[in-house]
Amino acid sequence: MERISVFGYGTTTRPIVKLLNTQGIVCAIFDDVFKQASHDQEGNALLPSSWFDPQTSDLEILSPGIPPSHPLLQKAKHPISEYDYFYDQFSPEYNPQSIWISGTNGKTTTTEMLTLLLKDQGAKSGGNIGTPLAELYRQKPPLWVLETSSFTLHYTHRAYPTFYLLLPVREDHISWHTSFEAYVQAKLKPLLIMQQDTFALLPQEFAHRYEAKNFLGKAFYYQDIQTLAQDVGVDTHALHFKGPFLLDALLALQAAKIFSSRIDTTLLNTFKIGQHRMEEFHDSKGRLWVDDSKGTNVDATLEALKSYADKKIFLILGGDDKGADLRPIFELARGLDIEIFAIGSNEEKLCVLAREYACVLHPCAELKNAVNAIKERLGRDGVGLLSPAAASLDQFSSYKERGELFCQYVTEEE
User: 82-89 vs 13-22: helix axis angle to the nearest 10?
Assistant: First the structure.
């Protein structure tokens, strides 16, 4: 029997282990959180990462968040992404079509929008959101719509989609990929694997790239909201979305048009934007607050700032910025009426940039301190904005917890 190791025991790999167990396969699971050897109820070994021995493993299924620099990857002889693993499981009896959606911002919204538009074709979303791939494989829907991270693409070498939709690519995850160029290469990698009779919808700026020129399928390009709306054939005023969500909506419509030769703006207008993404609410004094906790990179925060450029902005910024260059935020801030409230592990970095750009910044260390400081200053003509341009794991379990606590701190003691 094949000896399967699993690297990282998280959201994507737990369902795979469960599926393998139903097939009578017991796994060896390696994770940094395990400090000593143990077993779970199914008999899977739970082992510290340092215990991995490549001589006892025939296949290593990776959790996508594990960076290439991790010692486990230095030892692995047969590493495989979950995308490649399930690609190898497909057969003439079950070989679903798939749409992969990647990019820097808007992946979740666009994936959910496109799944809605293609629901009559049996579309079901998964990947980073929705149903885990192991569960999709068990349920066997005819169309997989997968939110796909650059981490997964980095590790995927054989699997490819029927349709690849790439949203704009901006600087993110630099510490993981080591450079912006490596990040871009990961985003464009599917083009080098996809075969004929496949399709891609890509930013115009990548048309000159080696990956695009060597793509065997049919590529469509987009440049901006105006030209994209013309290509789709819709009036943007007919859509109930604004800001970055309008681009997401148009890309979902264009993808549906290419994939199924039809669009449905009425159906799309029923879509509700998810929590913690430019989510507006008011406190008991009628003051505007915005939960953009999912704004985990520079480009997302820039879009949020532009959306409220006509107001006095009290911005909560900071966390694990993943090595990104934050200067564009401060360059934009110089032209706005803004005060910055710094939190998280990169607070000192933010303070240095604020001095360099002569921006008003208040070191707050923690989210609650920042919210309370804003409460003392915010008027009804301003906005309290949480758009941290950083991941949350330095102080929170997730961006969701960060957003929920933000809302709690805003509304308490009023």
Answer: 30
pLDDT in tens, 210-248: 999 999 999 999 999 999 999 999 999 999 998 889 999
Nearest alpha carbon to residue 384 among 363, 359, 411: 411
The CATH superfamily label for domain 4-80 reads NAD(P)-binding Rossmann-like Domain (3.40.50.720)
Task: Give the mean pLDDT of the chain.
Answer: 94
Is 92-268 assigned to CATH 3.30.470.20?
no
Distance from C-alpha of 258 to C-alpha of 262, rounded to nearest angstrom: 8
Opening angle at CA 319, ends 317 and 324, nearest 5: 90
Q: Is the pLDDT of residue 11 over 90?
A: no
Asked whether 44 and 37 are in contact (CB, 8 A), the reply is no
Of 222, 216, 214, 177, nearest in space to 199 by CA: 216
What's phi and psi for 356, nearest 5 deg? -65, -40
pLDDT at position 57 over 70:
yes
Give the fold, CATH level 3, of 279-411: Protein-Tyrosine Phosphatase; Chain A (3.90.190)
Length of the chain counted residue by residue? 414
CA distances in angstroms from 368 to 90, 344, 395, 406, 409, listed in the order given = 49, 12, 12, 7, 6
Distance CA 60, CA 71 (A): 13
pLDDT classification of 414: cutoffs 50, 70, 90:
low
Q: Of 73, 81, 100, 230, which is closest to residue 160 (Cα–Cα)?
A: 100
- Is the pLDDT reported for residue 276 higher than 90? no
Residue 174's pLDDT band, with cuts at 50, 70 and 90, is confident
Angle made by CA atoms 115, 147, 151, in degrees to the nearest 5: 170
The radius of gyration computed from the CA coordinates of the chain, to the nearest angstrom, equals 22
Tokens matching residue 201: 């919808």
Residue labelled with tokens 């693409």: 153
